[in-house]
Amino acid sequence: MLDLDFEIIGRTWKYLFFDGMAFTIELTLLAMAGGIIVGTMLALARLSSFTPVSALAGGYVNLIRSMPLVLVIFWFYFLVPYIGAWLIGSKNPLKIGAFTSSLVTFILFEAAYYCEIMRAGIQSIPRGQILAGYALGMHYWQTMRNVVLPQAFRNMIPVLLTQTIVLFQDVSLVYVLSITDFVGAADKVGRRDGRLVEMLLFVALVYFVMCTLLSGLVRRLQQRVAVIR
Amino acid sequence: MHFDWSIYLQLSPDGQHTYLQTILHGLGWTLATALSAWIIALLLGAIIGTIRTTPMAWAVRVGNTYVELFRNIPLLVQMFLWFFVLPELLPTAAGDRLKQLPNASFITAVVCLGFFTSARVAELVRAGILALPRGQRMAGTALGLTLPQTYCYVLLPMAIRIVIPPLTSEFLNIIKNSAVALTIGLVELTAAARSMQEFSFHVFEAFSAATVVYVLINIIVVNGMRVLENKLQVPGFISLGGGMSAGH
Fold this sequence. Notes:
The complex is a heterodimer of chains A (229) and B (248).
Chain A lengths: L6 H40 L4 H15 L3 H20 L9 H26 L3 H9 L4 H31 L11 H11 L3 H30 L4
Chain B lengths: L18 H33 L5 H15 L3 H15 L2 H8 L4 H27 L3 H9 L4 H31 L11 H12 L2 H30 L16
Helix pairs in contact in B: 1-5, 1-7, 1-8, 2-5, 3-4, 3-5, 5-7, 6-7, 7-9, 8-9
């Protein structure tokens, strides 16, 4: 039986929150924004009547969804410098920081999940709405932007936010690249001072409180945005 | 960037197996972990999920807390809690025995994934039971069945069929989530690919192998479950299909 000493948290909480948690939250919010935008584009592509586009988007989404996030993190960690070099036409792989690399990874990974949510949202819009848009003389993009997507987005806000809570928890997996997110910071300090047990218990408590509060908020939001039909 | 696919047949640093064999070895650990954990998850999840639909308020509260606890802590942190924290919190003798277990990382991964997934299964089972028309429960009561009998003969048989499609994706999730066990030293599929990449420097070949295997597992499981779903279908009832939910 070990004697627990939580005094270490009093000494290190500034580092844990201002370095670790700040990284986690920043990555979560940016990946959410990027993921929803890319995911919505993917959803539109998947629903496209032009087969090559829908097949390509569907293939990407299914591929990403059948891989573990850890493997995707490894993949992109090595691929992103090459993709970057290819994008700007450079011969040598780019040097890319840990934050950018993991941001690209999470945007492209979560986009596959957000895509399925947005697709369900778009498909829940009655067909008549799209036809009405066309009847008013709008073209495809106008109909999507002004009629379909706002409703689909509104209907799916609770699910999108729940997925974001999942993303918030998933960010902890950047641990495999030795990046200092919240878990990474606690792990480093805990190992250095021989207080890993206290640190991990504290990390679990913080995540539990934050995620419980957030999912409670989502539940309340869900009741408020529900459209009565 | 150049590819050399013959790398799979070269000997890995252990001097006995080719890289292909080490990848397949990793696949074995992935499947063993996922399947063992799945048994725990199904049993616990079915019990907790059922409890959460009973009229006993205290039991519902216990079930809800259980689900919240395992859903609101990241899997990685849960892995660490089971692996690093639990042995320290137990009495010294028991803790030391845990640490000296021959397959500590495998056992920890199974227990951790089992509990983690059981909370998700519980959520699905609860939703499945609540999706049944109220009349079914009332009919059971009206026939003079006790509460356990109503569950056993009326509610659960239908609820199980409703939850099979979402359970399929949860089973795929447990296979994917087993990759997190590499952080506590289990050499499963992703870790095998990772070590192949580290020793051979063939990044793309190593990760492609793991990716192809994961995709194949996915295809096999999805098709297998579809067959099962059709076999179990009750004539006259179309499956309700899972609603849209977040998760991995």
